[in-house]
UniProtKB/TrEMBL annotation:
Residues 1-82 form the GST N-terminal domain. Belongs to the GST superfamily. The lineage of its organism: Bacteria, Pseudomonadati, Pseudomonadota, Betaproteobacteria, Burkholderiales. This is Glutathione S-transferase family protein. It comes from the Bacteria. Signal peptide: none annotated. InterPro entries: Glutathione-S-Trfase_C-like, Glutathione-S-Trfase_C_sf, Glutathione_S-Trfase, Glutathione_S-Trfase_N, GST_C, Thioredoxin-like_sf. It comes from Hydrogenophaga bisanensis. Residues 89-207 form the GST C-terminal domain.
Length: 207
């Protein structure tokens, strides 16, 4: 039985398609489109899960939300894209699996929300930018020291980190001043599995 991905355009669920392509697992995509005025997910997603969010992964009777939890489930299911077999690799893997959504994305979402506030929004964004820069500088330091977030091999931690860093290129000023991070983005975008996921997933503004 194929896995089912409930996929929202221009969303974090693009990461899940990439991961499934890397794992070479068969899957079916069920597509949902954002409201063009509000950019919110459509109400139909609440028929899939009470939170009305994407991605949702169905594996038979199992239904999962939260991309990090889904990634960890797929790592356990396949034995692939997990941490390196040593303590430091495991610690780095765990850290970046959770850091993507726990630390980086909240700052980017705050910047997005503030940017839409009339008049005072731009002032608020300028106040938040130094906090975002602290994260981007830390990420640059990590990627300047090793090729992947959890060490010498790509893992689910890299998949988790892809969306916030892609979003940061358009929302938070990530660019050539952080060459190791930009090189990492170029590297993941060139992967055949990433390209296959883009082709299947449809509209995605950040690649």
């Amino acid at each position: 039985m194929s896995l089912i991905v409930h996929h929202l355009n221009n969303s974090r669920s693009q990461r899940l398609l990439w991961m499934l392509e890397e794992l070479e697992l068969p899957y079916e995509i069920r597509f949902y489109e954002r409201d063009r005025r509000t950019m919110l997910a459509p109400p139909e997603l609440k028929q899939v899960h009470p939170l009305g969010k994407s991605p949702v992964l169905e594996d038979g009777r199992i239904k999962l939300v939260e991309t990090g939890a889904i990634c960890e489930y797929l790592v356990e299911k396949t034995g692939k894209l997990g941490p390196a077999d040593h303590d430091q690799g495991l610690r780095d893997y765990r850290q970046f699996i959770h850091y993507a959504e726990g630390s980086v994305m909240p700052m980017l979402l705050l910047m997005l929300a503030m940017s839409k506030v009339p008049l005072l929004g731009k002032v608020a964004v300028r106040k938040v930018q130094p906090m975002v820069d602290t994260h981007l500088d830390y990420i640059e330091q990590v990627l300047a020291s090793r090729p992947w977030f959890a060490g010498q091999q790509m893992s689910a931690a890299d998949i988790m980190m892809s969306f916030p860093l892609e979003a940061a290129t358009s929302r938070a000023g990530l660019g050539p001043s952080r060459p190791a991070t930009m090189a990492w983005l170029k590297k993941i975008h060139a992967r055949p599995a990433y390209q296959a996921a883009l082709k299947k997933g449809g509209s995605y503004a950040y690649a």
